[in-house]
């Protein structure tokens, strides 16, 4: 039987077996190459240069003095030297004798642009310069960012350095508080594909039901330690024809470190100017040789982030029994009376406050990346993966003393529930790659899982009265993915100016599950059967009129439990034809068959022309798709919420295979489809300066949304009667209901200049201008024509179209003077428009904000760096909510743009030891 444990056992054996055979395979016939790598223009040594033995897994990095040492097989060897901002170079050595020590010093030349690095995302030709690719690709070196940047996780790092990327932490948003969704070019989190070392990564088990990306499922990148990452490649173009589902907006490929012999460790501490949100982070990375030619690179990381509180100056008198609600007359007079009442009770105002802000979070992660050669034909077995756990504390709405969900005997002043998450994430990829008759062959298996266990504390089930527990297990979710892939690629150098052909296939198995909570977390003990005189049950009666289940987040019922599996098989081919040295044309096609909704066929055509070394023109057109996530197909839950009349009612989110969905004519979910157009250029007017501009349009048909709640009482009588049997008075669903069009432009400019006096200047400017619009009418069900406006409420439409910044401009300046490095970054987050109050709120535009980061790094010794700095150093906050959007002034700021916590200051120590 297919189980998680069996998968890990088999993959572990695949990965570990070569450890016992590598030494025998390679023997002891090796030589040593050592030397120093310097900046050709300044003579300055270069630390952190990647050095790879071509056609093998061997490699290393230079130390703080630019020195390196690498063991290579006797005979002939080719070494590749690469470094961000410099031209890569290859050095050949011939006739090396066993035991020989050879000195090879290398000078690297500053590249025409910072970012002419070889990229592997978006091509199967073995990599090409990102300026010479047919589609836009950003290359972000994480090593320097991890030392200098104030941000501590991948999502926040990319938000500040990649203008088209956006990730916002949510507040009082149930599961979404514990898993910040991320997006590219204003699209959904589930329209962005994430890869690790070129292999598909599993998504989170969480579906975002509240907050800015309602109804979507994203990939949790926060558990990937920044210390484990060598670089991140962002492909800003549709790539479903190459990589499959989800790649409508683009692809993020996270490349893990491979270096050996260098221990890097760091410790970070920081906090907000407001006095909360203290953050501590420690991580370490080390690579060691495996056998004669293999390597293992291991990273460990732990982050503790305390919660923040940015609640508004709300009407505190609502929390004191016997006092009026905030919409009464003269709230200021009542508030003054409350102050004395609070003091008489021996309390302070803080005892009655909401807590609204970032959730507290502890993240422990371990990642590994390794490879070992087998045989003598450049074949290697590789493996990588990670294990992490997140422990989160979130803050749902506070319950008032007079609320129907409170038990005054337990909480005489009301209470604010706490949501407690435990999220376990596992991943392991193992594979073998090598060459056979000129074909590069790669066979791999990737398994990943994400399990979300949820608890609620400081809560109550009001229908149990004073005997109610205050802590509940409310259940949780799980998602797992297993991908087996086989790829063949060959470069024909005699055809035209070179043709690369790649063929392959993948088989994927996905599983999604919901687990029920304990009985008090979901049951309403006041509901009893109504029995007629003949003994038949004729209905149910609420004998208490109180809210059942755990307050803050009611548990999943046994009827909500599910374990659903889907399989799909894919076949793909892509060809890159160099018609001349300057003219590249590429095409790709991919066929996939899903076990639940059928087949899809997609294609991509791109081209690039080089006008010397100064100008590149490029463009692409592709079709894409996104399969509905299993979460969207099978998520179902009955819970309590407020309706448009501010009455607490039972609302059912029913999956598409349910009887309610069938009654209301909700069709089975099908794939979203897209057409993506892009055109742009890369300009290099003179040495060290580059400018790229890329325009795009993304049309998505049959986009999946989560509807608003349909009132059962407004449905036809026969349908309403059957739905009431589920104990609900309202229902919502996932459905393919809208078409959208996204248009925009990305602009990236870079300049770097080395000075002869040990100084270095690097400058980058990036901008994204983006517009999202719903196209045409919303597709509705005939049974719901009378409530058609509930498919996409005006506030949901506003959030979809204008909830992300419609422009973002980022400028970074770094200046190095010997051991001192200064970095200053300014980011302008464009305006957004939201209505966070829903039916009780109003559309509000929040103005653009300019945020400044600053850090100073000093090399105390060759091994130790000391960094101080801050994010948002001028303490810029978003515009405040208007009263209608604030829930009686509870929410002061929107969870958008650059966050709502103000200035953050930090200090960091980084240690590098060879």
TrEMBL record:
Record keywords: Cell outer membrane, Membrane, Receptor, Signal, TonB box, Transmembrane, Transmembrane beta strand, Transport
Gene3D superfamilies, per the entry: Carboxypeptidase-like, regulatory domain, TonB-dependent receptor, beta-barrel domain, TonB-dependent receptor, plug domain
Domain TonB-dependent receptor plug, first and last residues per copy: 131-251
Domain (TonB-dependent receptor-like beta-barrel) ranges: 377-873
Major site of localization recorded for this protein: membrane
Cell location: Cell outer membrane
Record membrane topology: Multi-pass membrane protein
Signal peptide from the UniProt entry: 1-27
Cross-referenced InterPro entries: Beta-barrel_TonB, Beta-barrel_TonB_sf, CarboxyPept-like_regulatory, Plug_dom, Plug_dom_sf, TonB-dep_rcpt-like
Family, as annotated: Belongs to the TonB-dependent receptor family.
PANTHER family referenced in this protein's UniProt entry, alphabetically: PTHR47234, SECRETIN_TONB SHORT N-TERMINAL DOMAIN-CONTAINING PROTEIN
Name of the protein described by the UniProt record: TonB-dependent receptor
The organism's taxonomic lineage, starting at the top: Bacteria, Pseudomonadati, Balneolota, Balneolia, Balneolales
């Amino acid at each position: 039987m297919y189980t998680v444990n069996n998968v890990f056992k088999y993959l572990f054996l695949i990965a570990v077996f070569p450890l016992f055979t590598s030494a025998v395979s390679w023997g002891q016939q090796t030589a040593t190459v050592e030397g120093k790598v310097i900046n050709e223009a300044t003579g300055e040594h270069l630390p952190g240069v990647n050095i790879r033995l071509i056609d093998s897994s061997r490699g290393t990095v230079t130390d703080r003095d630019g020195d390196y040492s690498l063991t290579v097989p006797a005979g002939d060897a080719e070494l590749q030297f690469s470094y961000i901002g410099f031209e890569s170079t290859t050095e050949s050595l011939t006739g090396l004798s066993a035991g020989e020590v050879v000195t090879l010093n290398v000078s690297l030349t500053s590249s025409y642009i910072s970012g002419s690095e070889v990229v592997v995302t978006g091509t199967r030709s073995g990599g090409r310069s990102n300026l010479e690719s047919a589609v836009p690709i950003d290359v972000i070196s994480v090593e320097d960012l991890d030392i200098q940047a104030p941000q501590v996780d991948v999502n926040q790092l990319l938000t500040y350095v990649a203008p088209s990327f956006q990730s916002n932490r949510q507040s009082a948003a149930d599961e979404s508080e514990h898993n910040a969704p991320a997006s590219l070019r204003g699209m959904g989190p589930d329209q962005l594909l994430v890869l690790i070392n070129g292999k598909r990564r599993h998504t989170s088990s969480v579906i975002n039901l509240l907050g800015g990306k309602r109804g979507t499922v994203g990939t949790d990148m926060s558990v990937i330690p920044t210390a484990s990452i060598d670089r991140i490649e962002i492909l800003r173009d549709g790539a479903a024809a190459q990589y499959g589902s989800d790649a409508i907006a683009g692809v993020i490929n996270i490349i893990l470190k491979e270096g050996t012999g260098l221990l890097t460790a760091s410790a970070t501490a920081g906090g907000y100017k407001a006095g909360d949100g203290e953050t501590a982070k420690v991580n370490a990375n080390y690579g060691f040789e495996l056998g004669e030619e293999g390597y293992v690179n291991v990273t460990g990381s732990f982050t503790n982030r305390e919660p923040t509180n940015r609640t508004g100056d709300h009407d505190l008198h609502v929390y004191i029994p016997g006092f009026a609600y905030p919409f009464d007359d003269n709230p200021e007079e009542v508030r003054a009376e409350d102050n004395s009442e609070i003091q008489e009770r021996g309390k302070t105002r803080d005892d009655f406050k909401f807590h609204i802000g970032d959730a507290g979070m502890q993240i422990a992660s371990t990642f590994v990346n390794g490879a070992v050669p087998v045989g003598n034909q450049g074949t290697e077995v590789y493996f990588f993966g990670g294990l992490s756990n997140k422990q989160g504390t979130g803050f749902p709405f506070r319950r008032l003393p007079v609320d129907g969900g409170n038990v005054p005997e337990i909480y005489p002043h009301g209470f604010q529930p706490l949501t407690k998450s435990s999220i376990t994430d596992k991943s392991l990829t193992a594979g073998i790659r090598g060459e056979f008759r000129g074909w590069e062959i790669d066979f791999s298996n990737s398994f990943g899982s994400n399990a979300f266990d949820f608890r609620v504390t400081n809560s109550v089930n009001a229908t149990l009265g004073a005997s109610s527990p205050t802590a509940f297990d409310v259940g949780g979710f799980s998602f797992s993915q297993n991908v087996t892939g086989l790829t063949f690629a060959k470069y024909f150098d005699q055809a035209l100016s070179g043709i690369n052909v790649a063929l392959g296939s993948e088989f994927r198995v996905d599983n999604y599950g919901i687990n029920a909570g304990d009985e008090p977390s979901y049951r309403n003990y006041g509901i009893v059967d109504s029995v007629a005189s003949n003994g038949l049950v004729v209905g149910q009666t609420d004998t208490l009129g109180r809210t059942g289940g755990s307050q803050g987040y009611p548990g999943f019922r046994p009827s909500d439990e599910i374990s659903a599996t889907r399989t799909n098989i894919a076949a793909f081919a892509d060809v890159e034809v160099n018609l001349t040295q300057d003219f590249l044309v590429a095409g790709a096609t991919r066929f996939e068959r899903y076990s639940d909704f059928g087949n899809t066929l997609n294609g991509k055509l791109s081209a690039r022309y080089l006008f010397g070394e100064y100008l590149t023109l490029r463009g692409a057109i592709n079709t894409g798709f996104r399969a509905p996530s299993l979460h969207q197909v099978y998520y179902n839950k009955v819970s309590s919420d407020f309706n448009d009349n501010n009455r607490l009612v039972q609302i059912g989110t029913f999956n598409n295979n349910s009887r309610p969905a069938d009654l209301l004519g909700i069709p089975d979910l099908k794939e979203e489809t897209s057409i993506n157009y892009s055109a742009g250029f890369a300009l290099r007017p003179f040495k060290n300066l580059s400018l790229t501009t890329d325009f795009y349009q993304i049309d998505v048909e049959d986009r999946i949304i989560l509807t608003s709640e349909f009132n059962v009482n407004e449905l036809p009588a026969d349908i309403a009667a059957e739905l009431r049997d589920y104990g609900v008075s309202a229902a919502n669903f996932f459905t393919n209901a809208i078409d959208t069009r996204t248009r925009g432009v990305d602009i990236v400019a870079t300049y770097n200049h080395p000075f002869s006096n040990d100084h270095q200047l690097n400058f980058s400017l990036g901008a994204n201008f983006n517009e999202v619009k719903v196209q045409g009418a919303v597709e509705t069900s005939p049974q719901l024509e009378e409530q058609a406006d509930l498919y996409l409420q005006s506030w949901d439409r506003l959030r979809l179209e204008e909830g992300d910044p419609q422009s973002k401009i980022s400028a970074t300046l770094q200046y190095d003077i010997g051991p001192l490095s200064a970095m200053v970054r300014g980011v302008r987050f464009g305006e957004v428009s939201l209505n966070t109050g829903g039916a009780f709120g109003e559309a509000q535009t929040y103005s653009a904000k300019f945020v400044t980061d600053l850090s100073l790094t000093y090399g105390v010794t060759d091994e130790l760096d000391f960094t101080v700095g801050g994010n948002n150093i001028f303490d810029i906050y978003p515009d405040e909510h208007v009263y209608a959007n604030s829930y009686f002034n509870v929410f002061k700021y929107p969870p958008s743009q650059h966050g709502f916590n103000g200035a953050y200051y930090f200090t960091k120590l980084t240690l590098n030891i060879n």
